[in-house]
Design a protein that fits this description.
By secondary structure, the chain is an all-alpha fold. 59% of the residues lie in helices and 0% in strands. It is built from 10 helices and no strands.
Length: 317
């Protein structure tokens, strides 16, 4: 008799009658996807540390191009470091951001591979379109933020005057530039939200176009808050770009509505607070015929009289 451990069968949580993935299998796949994404980010972080100094110099260019940033003794652009390890920690932070950008194709693919099996075919197609548009829109916002930073620093440093020496702290300056780039990049993703509302059927193109006054007001208010300078140039540039993207998204929404046949439904031309037209044509009715009298409800039915019995002569006794 052989003794040994009996192999345990799948538990009730690991069984799926329809062949789909179970809860345990989803958790295992998530663990695998996270491990691969983390490994890619770690490799990208290694390259990011190597590129941290050139990226920091590139982000410092808007300030170093100004005459106020040049040290009269050395002739170089100088920043102030308040802590001993500030530049080292700043390089680690920049390296992490660069690593996330370098490893973006890998960790985005791992995220998509985990989500895609639960989506329908048309939802996957929309996801491809939105992802293809998100990257260039974010890059356009980053470029505009770099331009606004250059003009904004020139305005702010000229306000201080010649009697004040300007020395910017390096970590605060880099955080200021990166936060501005992030805000502008995220703001440029707003047209994708507009398209998503239209593609899922929550807002038609006509309704989106009717909101253009509110949208422009929100764009100018947002631009006034996020731009670093009080001058109207940076604010106007960002607001005009967002408005143009909004109207472009509305134009795509009109094309999508025409392709899907929206707006040709019954009562589509009737407003929400308007009474729909009704057909009030009356058909002529003729005179009614007579009604036969019927027995009252609950009365017994009449019983027919029995037929008379014919008797023959041989029946007589």
């Amino acid at each position: 008799m052989a003794f040994g451990l009996k192999k345990r069968g799948p538990s009730k949580f690991e069984q799926a009658a329809d062949g789909s993935m179970t809860l345990i299998e989803h958790v295992r796949e998530l663990r695998t996807r996270l491990f691969r994404a983390s490994l890619a980010i770690l490799v990208g972080f290694g390259f990011g540390i190597w590129l941290a100094t050139p990226v920091r110099i590139l982000l410092s260019k808007p300030y170093c191009d100004l005459p106020q940033s040049i040290d009269p003794e050395t002739g170089k652009c100088l920043f102030v470091q308040l802590g001993v390890a500030d530049v080292f920690l700043l390089n680690l932070k920049i390296g992490l951001w660069v690593g996330l950008v370098i490893a973006a194709p890998v960790w985005l693919y791992q995220l998509w591979a985990f989500i895609a099996p639960g989506l329908h075919r048309h939802e996957r197609r929309y996801a491809y379109i939105f992802t293809a548009l998100a990257a260039p829109l974010f890059a356009a916002g980053a470029v505009l933020a770099f331009f606004v930073t250059t003009k904004g620093l020139e305005f702010l440093l000229n306000v201080s005057g010649d009697d004040i020496a300007t020395n910017l702290e390096v970590t605060r300056y880099i955080s200021f530039v990166t936060n501005l780039i992030l805000l502008f990049g995220v703001a440029f993703e707003f047209p994708l939200i507009v398209l998503m509302l239209n593609f899922v059927g929550l807002a038609s193109a006509k309704r989106l176009l009717s909101w253009w006054r509110v949208a422009i007001f929100v764009f100018f208010a947002f631009s006034a808050v996020v731009t670093p300078t009080p001058d109207p140039f940076g604010m106007t540039a960002l607001a005009i770009c967002l408005s143009a993207l909004y109207f472009g998204a509305v134009a795509v929404a009109f094309i999508n509505d025409r392709r899907r046949g929206r707006g040709r439904e019954l009562y589509s031309d009737v407003a929400d607070d308007e009474v729909s037209p009704l057909d009030l044509s009356v058909e002529p009715v003729g005179a009614a015929g007579g009604v036969e009298a019927s027995a009252p409800i609950g009365a017994p039915e009449p019983v027919a009289a029995p037929a008379p019995i014919e008797r023959r002569y041989d029946d007589m006794t």
